[in-house]
């Protein structure tokens, strides 16, 4: 596997862009899918957002200046596309983002692509009760094991703020999961 700077150079060269883009897809498609899926919940929605993410990446790769890692840039685009998707859907349905998330979570058990058990479903419901930023931070740290340094680059905030958000999210989840 070639290093990131070589891939970027090939992506920004018209002669090698298509082959490099196929490699980019191969390298990041699955990780981005699961990142998006944790945000938008439904498989079909995650597929749509992933496609939009890669379209945006393809159109704007020439503007990538390398001020962050390619991985961070891709995650930032995927995160923003996911949030935009939720906002547009909630607006179209004339409901709040929280109601949209709750609706997606409530339909999760019926999703043929959801392979979780009752405990995993309860955890997803608990995560859905968190504010959006805490959901992002929790999912990225707990499930994807992204370092705070990389997360700070992706979400464009400080490591300290992320650590605080994660800590608060964990406390809220513990409370939710132990109250019954």
UniProtKB/TrEMBL annotation:
InterPro entries: RNA_pol_sigma-70-like (IPR039425), RNA_pol_sigma-70_dom (IPR014284), RNA_pol_sigma70_r2 (IPR007627), RNA_pol_sigma70_r4_t2 (IPR013249), RNA_pol_sigma_r2 (IPR013325), RNA_pol_sigma_r3/r4-like (IPR013324), WH-like_DNA-bd_sf (IPR036388). Residues 24-91 form the RNA polymerase sigma-70 region domain. It holds the Pfam family Sigma70_r4_2. Keywords: Sigma factor, Transcription, Transcription regulation. Gene3D superfamilies: 1.10.1740.10, Winged helix-like DNA-binding domain superfamily/Winged helix DNA-binding domain. Residues 121-173 form the RNA polymerase sigma factor 70 region 4 type domain. It comes from the Bacteria. NCBIfam families: sigma70-ECF. Belongs to the sigma-70 factor family. ECF subfamily. This is Sigma-70 family RNA polymerase sigma factor.
